[in-house]
Amino acid sequence: MKMPDSVFSRMLLAWLPFMAYAGSGVSAWRLAAAVAGLYWLSLLFFWPLRRFFPEAGARQVFPFWLALWGQLLWGAAGLAPFWVLSVYLLFPSGVLNARKTTAIPKKQPGYFFGHLIAGAGFFVFAGALSSACALDPARGFVVTPAWIFLMMFVAVYLWNRPSVRSPRKDFGAAKKEASS
Amino acid sequence: MKKILPAVLRWCFLVVFLAGMVLLFLSARTLTENPGVAVKVRKVFYR
Fold first, then answer.
1. Among the four residues A79, A89, B8, B22, which has the most C-beta atoms within 10 Å?
2. How many CB pairs under 8 A join A and B?
3. Residue A42 falls within a domain, yes or no?
């Protein structure tokens, strides 16, 4: 299965397991912080060590690593381990490819930093979206699936609306249309 | 020999990594079996 490379697609996919915690008393902001924390820890661990694993070894070990963390918080806090799925879906697949240099462009110094920033982005996105989902005015703070999907639609619409795009790109498109 | 040695070292690293994870799991489990610790960790996630 090919996972999407776009950060927003990964964040939206990674937020889906949060639906399982709706109405369970789990604080979405704290859970998002735990997801971002484990994401950063995994990135800092697997990025420098990926070359030391056997061929495709890091890719096989990664789910085991996540299962360990899921089990630890299941045992310690009674927290259902859906949240590790968020880390799995948020994690960029190129990091686990040890010797495929095409997946990790060496000449881009901001590549690793960009992945780190994605963790902070997910924390804000997941926290804000879960807070919005918990505030259903029609049902008096009772979470309904229709409201959750409406909030997801609003998030996707806000991300993809045309005015957010770079004006230079729009200008280029308009210029092409004018010239043709 | 030059080709075999890195492969053997990589497999050794994998075994050490897996053993470390099992040790981490066992030590954390004994810690969280303590009811005081479990209550504190639970309070972090639940409102």
1. A79
2. 60
3. yes
Would you say residue A92 lies in a domain?
A: yes
Q: Which of B32, B39, B45 to mutate to test the interface with A (most CBs of A within 10 A)?
A: B45
Q: Select from A84, A91, A83, A88 the least CA-distant residue to A116.
A: A91
Range of the domain at A34: 7-179
Q: Looking at the domain assignment, is residue A136 inside a domain?
A: yes
For A75-128, write each residue's pLDDT tens digit. 888 889 999 999 999 998 777 776 654 455 555 556 778 888 999 999 999 999
Amino acid at B10: R
Using CA atoms, how far apart are residues A93 and A87, in angstroms rounded to an integer?
A: 12
Question: Chain B residue closest to A68 (CA)?
Answer: B25
Which amino acid, A125? F
Inspect the interface and report whether the beta carbons of A30 and B24 lie closer than 8 Å.
no
In chain A, how many domains are there? 1
pTM of the full structure: 0.80
Residue B3 contacts A where some CB pair is shorter than 8 Å: no
Q: How far is A64 from chain B (nearest CA, A)?
A: 9
DSSP string, A42-79: HHHHHHHHGGGSPTTHHHHHHHHHHHHHHHHHHHHH--
Residue of B3, B8, B17 to mutate when probing chain A, most A C-beta within 10 A: B17
